[in-house]
Write a structure and sequence with these properties.
It contains twelve helices and twelve strands. By secondary structure, it is of the alpha+beta class. A five-stranded antiparallel sheet has the order 2-1-5-4-3, with helices on both faces. The longest helix is centred in the N-terminal third of the chain and has 79 residues.
Length: 496
C-alpha cells in the first residue's frame, strides 16, 4: 500500500510538472505573437519611411544638380556679355546694368559684379553696391580664374561664381549669380507633407495586411495552443497533427513524443504498482491459507504442523526477497544512486564470482567456462558489478538444460570492456526479448516461481549498468540458448 501511494504521488507530481511546462509554453506563444506583430510593424514602418525618404532625397538632389547647372550656365552667358567691352565702365555706359536687371528679373537670379579689389561694382538687388565682399569662392576664382557652383544646404541658395574677361581677354572681374532656392524648398515641404499622408496610408494598409497574414500563419500555432489547453485540462490522449510548415511539424513531433513517453511512464508505473501489489499479496495469501488450515484442524500431527510451518517460512523468505529486490531498485535509481568507484581487476572478479556459483552449476551438471582475452582493469563499483555478473550467470544456470554449458568471456579495447554470458538453455521468445528488463516481467511465471525468481533481477542488472554509463543487449533463440552482452567504459566519468 505504501509503494502504491508513493507511486501515485510521483505520477501526480510529474503531471503537475508537465502542466506547468505547458502553461509556460502557452504564455510564451501568446507573447511571441505580440512580439511578432510589434517587430514586423516596426520593420514595415521603418521600411516605408526609409523608402520614401530615400526617394525624396534622390529626387531633391537631382533637382538641385539640374538647378546648379542652369545657374552656372546663366552666369557664364552673362559674363560673356562683357567680352565685347574694354572694361566694366564701358559696359556700364553701354547699358549692361539694365541688361543685368532684365536677366535677374527673368531668371529670378541675383547678379553681382565684383572687381579685382573685391568691391561690388554692380548688384541687381542694389543692397551690396560699393561694399567689399568677403567670399571664399570669389577669392578662389580671382586666384584660379575658374568657375564654381555650390548649394548652401542651410540657406537653400545656389551660387555660381565665374570669371569675367574684357575684349582683349584680360581678367577684369568676378560675376556672382545667386538663386534663392527657398521657394523650391517650400515646394518640397508641401510634397513631403503629401508624402507623409501617403506614408500613413501605406503603413496602415501594410499593418492590416500583416494582421491578416499573422492570423493565417499563426492558425497552426493557435491549434497547438488549443490542443495543449485540452491536455492541460486532463485530455492526455490529444495529439498535434503532423501538418503545417516545418517548425510546426517539428513542434508537433516533439510534443507528441513527450506525451507518448509520459503516457508510457504512467502506464509503466501503474503496471509496476499492480505487479508489486500482486507479488507481495501472493506470499501473504499462501501464509494466510496455511495458517488458517492449522487453526481449523484439531489434533494436527507434528509432522504436518512442521511441514506447514516450513512452507510459511519459505513464503516469508520469498516475501523478504521481493522486498529486498525492491529496495535495491530504489537504491539503483539513476538520479539518486551513488557508486563506490575503484580500480578493479576484472579477470580476478569474474573468476571469484564464477567460483562461488560453480556449486549451483554442478547440481544440474552444467559446465561453467571462463575465457579471458587479455588482462582488464576498470573503474567500477565492485559490489554492484559483482551483483550484475552473479545475476546473469545464475540465470544462465537456472534456465539451462541438464548437462548444458555456460560460457563467460571477457575482452576490452582502448575505451570499453566487454562481458558475454552465453548458455545452452531454453532461450527467450522473440516477443519477450524487449521486455525482460522490465520490473516483474517473467517469460515463464510458473518456472520463475519454481526457481525462486522475483522478476526484478534483470531490471537491477540494467540499472547498475546504466549507472556505469554502459549498455546491455540480449540475443536469444528458443531451445538453442541466450547471449547477454554488456559494454562498460574502462574509466568512469561522473556526469554533472
Amino acid at each position: 500500500m505504501f509503494n502504491k501511494n508513493k507511486n501515485k504521488k510521483e505520477i501526480n507530481r510529474r503531471k503537475i510538472v508537465w502542466i506547468r511546462i505547458f502553461d509556460n509554453f502557452l504564455k510564451f506563444i501568446r507573447r511571441y505573437t505580440v512580439i511578432q506583430f510589434v517587430v514586423s510593424a516596426v520593420i514595415i514602418t521603418a521600411a516605408v519611411i526609409g523608402t520614401f525618404e530615400g526617394f525624396e532625397y534622390i529626387y531633391k538632389e537631382s533637382v538641385i544638380t539640374r538647378q546648379k547647372a542652369v545657374v552656372q550656365n546663366e552666369a557664364i552667358l552673362i559674363a560673356a556679355e562683357y567680352a565685347g567691352y574694354a572694361g566694366l565702365h564701358d559696359a556700364e555706359l553701354s547699358g549692361m546694368g539694365s541688361r543685368l536687371n532684365s536677366y535677374s528679373a527673368m531668371n529670378q537670379i541675383r547678379i553681382r559684379i565684383v572687381d579685382l579689389n573685391y568691391n561690388v561694382y554692380a548688384d541687381t538687388y542694389s543692397t551690396d553696391y560699393g561694399k567689399t565682399i568677403i567670399n571664399s569662392k570669389v577669392f578662389d576664382t580671382v586666384v584660379s580664374h575658374k568657375t564654381s557652383t555650390v548649394y548652401d544646404y542651410k540657406s537653400g541658395d545656389i551660387q555660381a561664381v565665374t570669371p569675367v574677361y574684357n575684349d582683349e581677354g584680360d581678367f577684369i572681374a568676378v560675376l556672382v549669380a545667386d538663386l534663392d532656392y527657398t521657394e523650391i524648398d517650400s515646394l518640397f515641404m508641401n510634397v513631403n507633407s503629401q508624402n507623409n499622408n501617403i506614408k500613413v496610408i501605406i503603413i496602415t494598409i501594410c499593418l492590416i495586411a500583416l494582421i491578416v497574414l499573422l492570423h493565417f500563419l499563426n492558425r497552426p500555432v493557435r491549434r497547438i495552443i488549443d490542443i495543449m489547453a485540452n491536455v492541460n485540462a486532463g485530455h492526455n490522449d490529444e495529439r498535434i497533427p503532423l501538418k503545417g510548415y516545418t517548425e510546426i511539424r517539428e513542434i508537433a513531433e516533439d510534443f507528441n513524443g513527450i506525451m507518448d513517453k509520459a503516457n508510457e511512464t504512467d502506464q509503466s508505473r501503474a503496471e509496476f504498482v499492480s505487479n508489486v501489489s500482486h507479488e507481495l499479496k501472493t506470499p501473504i495469501t499462501s501464509i494466510k491459507v496455511l495458517a488458517e488450515s492449522l487453526n481449523t484442524q484439531e489434533n494436527v500431527p507434528i509432522e504436518v504442523y512442521q511441514e506447514f510451518m516450513q512452507d510459511i517460512v519459505t513464503e516469508i523468505d520469498r516475501e523478504s526477497k521481493i522486498i529486498e529486490d525492491l529496495l535495491t531498485l530504489v537504491r539503483m535509481d539513476k538520479t539518486t544512486a551513488t557508486l563506490n568507484i575503484t580500480s578493479v581487476n576484472m579477470n580476478e572478479l569474474l573468476e571469484m564470482t564464477l567460483k562461488r556459483l560453480k556449486p549451483i552449476a554442478q547440481k544440474k551438471n552444467i559446465e561453467l567456462l571462463f575465457e579471458s582475452f587479455r588482462p582488464v582493469v576498470a573503474q567500477i563499483d565492485e559490489v554492484k558489478m559483482t551483483q550484475v555478473i552473479s545475476n546473469l550467470v545464475e540465470n544462465a544456470i537456472k534456465y539451462n538444460v541438464d548437462d548444458g554449458w555456460v560460457h563467460v568471456s571477457l575482452n576490452a579495447d582502448y575505451q570499453y570492456f566487454y562481458i558475454r554470458v552465453e548458455d545452452s538453455g531454453i532461450g527467450i521468445p522473440e516477443e519477450s526479448q524487449n521486455k525482460i528488463f522490465e520490473r516483474f516481467y517473467r517469460v515463464d511465471k510458473a518456472r520463475s516461481r519454481e526457481t525462486g525468481g522475483t522478476g526484478l533481477g534483470l531490471a537491477i542488472v540494467r540499472n547498475i549498468i546504466l549507472l556505469h554509463h554502459g549498455t546491455i543487449k540480449v540475443h536469444s533463440e528458443e531451445n538453442i540458448g541466450t547471449t547477454f552482452t554488456m559494454r562498460v567504459p574502462l574509466n568512469y566519468v561522473e556526469v554533472q
